[in-house]
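Regression report. Comparing outputs from two consecutive submissions.

Submission 1:
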Amino acid sequence: MPTDNQGSSYEYKSSGTNNQGNHYCSRDYGSGASNPNSYHYSNTNGSYYYSNPNGSTYYNNGQGGSKYTPPSSGNSGKK
C-alpha cells in the first residue's frame, strides 16, 4: 500500500484527466481518517485544490493567491 508525504497509507480510488485537460486523483485513507475520501485536482490554468485526509483543504489559484482551511475549523485564512 503506498504512503503519502505525511506517511499515511492509502489506496487509489480513481485518477485521470477530464476533457478540459484538468487532472484529478482520488484516494481512500480508510475509516480512521477524518476525511477518508480525499482528492486533489490540478487545472491547466495552474490552479490546484487539495481535500486532505485530516479534513483540511488547500486551494492555490496559480497566480500567487492561496487559501487554507484547517481541519477542525470553519475559518479560512488567506496565505
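Submission 2:
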Amino acid sequence: MEEVIIRSKLAADAGADVCFIEGVKTQQLLELKVDTLASKPVLVNVISGGLTPSFTSKDAEAMGAKMISEECPAARHTYSMPCQCFL
C-alpha cells in the first residue's frame, strides 16, 4: 500500500484531478491516504466482494473521502449475466 500511496502522490503532484486506490482494507489506511493526498479529493470504491470493507457513504465521508463509488444492485445482475454465458 505504501508504494501505491507514493505513486498516487506523484500523480497528484503531476496534476491528477482525483486520487483513487483500490483495496484500502482498513479505516486507518483510508485515513492515511486522505491525509497524504490532502491536496486532491479521494475516491473510495465500495463494491460488494471487493477488497475495501463495506464502508457506508457516511463512513467514507467521515474518513475524508470526497467521492464514493457504490455498487448498483440492479446492474450487478445485468453485468454478471453475459459473463456467465461465456465462462
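Expected: both submissions complete independently.
Actual: both completed, but the second showed a warning that disappeared on reload.
Relevant detail on submission 2: The longest strand covers residues 42-46.
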